[in-house]
Amino acid sequence: MNSIQSSPTVVDDSLFVGDGRGTLYAIDAETGNRRWAFESTRIRSSPTVADGTVFVGSFDHNLYAVDAETGNQQWAFETGDFIASSPTVIDSTVFVGSDDGYLYAVDAETGDQEWAFQTGGRIRSSPTVVDGTVLVGSSDGNICAVDTETGDQRWEFEIGSGVNSSPTVVDGTVFVGSADGNLYAVATGVDGSSEDSRVLLGTLGHHGDRRFANQSIDIPAHALYTSWVRNNADWLAIGGVGIGGGIGGISLIRRREDTRESKQDPPNESSGESSAMPPSETAQSTTPTDQSGTDASSRVDEFRSEAETALEMAVAAKENNLFDEAEDAYDVALTQYEAALDELDAGDAETRTKVEESIDAAHAELTALETLHEQQEEIIETLETAEHSFQVAIMAYVEGSQTLARIRFRQARDSFAEAVDIVEDSDEDLLSPPVEVSVQPDRELASTALSELPAVPEAAVASLSDAGVNEIDELEEREEPPWPPTPVETLATEETTSDRVETTLTLLSWWEDTDSHEFETAAAVSRRRDQAEYGFARSS
């Protein structure tokens, strides 16, 4: 299992979690044994389980629905960019945000889009639903309230700094953290609490088993602060959260609740609405100061510095062919750049442009690396399949199983041809450094001594012995046609052997007596393809 950035979800006796390489795992919660694995591309989204289906987002832009028992894909819904937002499921609808800036409502059964709502920035926040309203934060610094049925906006609350924290609603108040270091409490205009929200339930519960969602919860300020800290540990590790006054340094701002009709309008902070703190504390916590501006600038510099350090690590890892480590480092760099972008003041256009350019460049490098990684994994798998078939074919021919040998030589030839295409089509040198593949034939030769092989007659053994060849590994492989080793070719010239014996000895010169075989160049793969074709033709 690669690096894990998504939170695990436990359902009954199964634990579901995704890793940085894009694999969604189902694990026995008691024993730790893997039940199944589903492959995608880089999972940062935490899985959500509802009615026997696991929903998870991936960096390949897709929202997947996977059968919780079997790991089989039920459907995939494609968005325009990465999905790091964790999905929320309610009333057979999946709500999920994407880096393309859209909040999507998707039919949980079919994977069909019900509607899409566009925000002004990428969505890493996970949606929460209350009384027919879905709320989500965006990197444009807004909390959006959207009608669950139509996708129409009900209201928008402007914070000003990026909102990657996931909101949760308790008794009509939505609590959400922001990149400005504050926790906000905003009146939603409804009376309920989050329904089936993984934010409220945390990683202990899930949509199909509401362990404590039906309780009426009185959340003190320190508990909210602790929850925010847990969900925003990366901010705390660098800049801290104690900005401004108020309870524990948290800003609590309430939206006006004077009438039901007002819920359609964007909230107005300056309209004299009530506050959860004394006026002096509210003013202190919401009024920018020179010190807070300096702190924000310092955090931006730190985020960018850490991103650049991560990029250096990514490049070094790539140069050493440590692709998993390189991808993880690029992911860290992107996270830090995005944190810097969220922290930036809207007026700092020059720095924002530079950070956005850095993000685009890092995305491009990561995409290229992932493509290279996929190609290398593909070439390794293809060459292993080919070499395995090739070695099995050799043993089958030596043991007189002509039909099996022909089948296996054909399989090897076709697989080697596929490997040649992969190498030639790639913009990178996939065989630098050399690719070492595992060789695990179904059975081994009884002996490596030519004298003990029934397929080699005594006269041929004696002639080869006179030439100093007594063991299989002493049959020197030729780099190009004609394929028979020189001592074997001499036997044919002296007419002391048959075509079958010549073929047997030629094939044995290619037999691999170790557990692996190395391919250094495209020419070596092409040569193996031609050797497999030779074996195929001679097995007819």
UniProtKB/TrEMBL annotation:
<dbReference type="InterPro" id="IPR002372">
    <property type="entry name" value="PQQ_rpt_dom"/>
</dbReference>
<feature type="domain" description="Pyrrolo-quinoline quinone repeat">
    <location>
        <begin position="5"/>
        <end position="80"/>
    </location>
</feature>
<protein>
    <submittedName>
        <fullName>PQQ-like domain-containing protein</fullName>
    </submittedName>
</protein>
<keyword id="KW-0175">Coiled coil</keyword>
<feature type="region of interest" description="Disordered">
    <location>
        <begin position="255"/>
        <end position="305"/>
    </location>
</feature>
<feature type="domain" description="Pyrrolo-quinoline quinone repeat">
    <location>
        <begin position="86"/>
        <end position="187"/>
    </location>
</feature>
<feature type="compositionally biased region" description="Polar residues">
    <location>
        <begin position="281"/>
        <end position="297"/>
    </location>
</feature>
<dbReference type="InterPro" id="IPR011047">
    <property type="entry name" value="Quinoprotein_ADH-like_sf"/>
</dbReference>
<feature type="compositionally biased region" description="Basic and acidic residues">
    <location>
        <begin position="255"/>
        <end position="266"/>
    </location>
</feature>
<dbReference type="Pfam" id="PF13360">
    <property type="entry name" value="PQQ_2"/>
</dbReference>
<feature type="region of interest" description="Disordered">
    <location>
        <begin position="473"/>
        <end position="499"/>
    </location>
</feature>
<dbReference type="InterPro" id="IPR015943">
    <property type="entry name" value="WD40/YVTN_repeat-like_dom_sf"/>
</dbReference>
<dbReference type="InterPro" id="IPR018391">
    <property type="entry name" value="PQQ_b-propeller_rpt"/>
</dbReference>
<feature type="coiled-coil region">
    <location>
        <begin position="323"/>
        <end position="389"/>
    </location>
</feature>
